[in-house]
Design a protein that fits this description.
Blueprint: H1 2-7, H2 12-21, H3 26-41, H4 43-55, H5 58-63, H6 71-79, H7 84-125, H8 128-160, H9 177-182, H10 184-189
Length: 190
Amino acid sequence: MIFSAFGRQLAIKNWLLQGRALGYSESASWWLLVFPTMLKQSRLALLAAMAFTLSVLDISLLIGPNIPELYAVVLYNWQTGFTADEQAMAFLGNLLLLLMLGVLVATIYGHEWIAAKRLRSLAVLANPMHITRLSRLFTAWLALFSLLTLAVLLTFLLWSLGWNTQNSFNSVNWSTALWQDEWFLCKNLC
């Protein structure tokens, strides 16, 4: 979604045409000319998504209190506490959250630097076999993270229906009560 928004702002067709004029295939032109620029353009959006993902509360609050709490929820509970111990834990927790965010920011910049350096060397070599391997690697990476996303969504769905990590899968008391309480449309339908 991020790349589609940036794709409308950049002259991708002209870059692909220039790549064809230089003798690159369309996929090689994409990887060598368009992708590095789009990666740099998407940096701020990726950083914002990483920061939001690290500190998100809404998904874990939607799933319910019967599961082990995520770090952001525990931190929120400490921040809203009134004792000195809770405030001290909230301060240390916020420092840890900032440290984790710093690691994620460094990871984004490191990933961008490695990708740009690698693509620059591929542009100099202009070896189509390396570019084809890179395209296959990206396709496998995309498939892996798509499966990971589906697994996370399935886990959220199972948690919302009453499964948690303390129970075996057969002894779960399946219920749509959370969905009925949270979604007003489901009250009329269920």
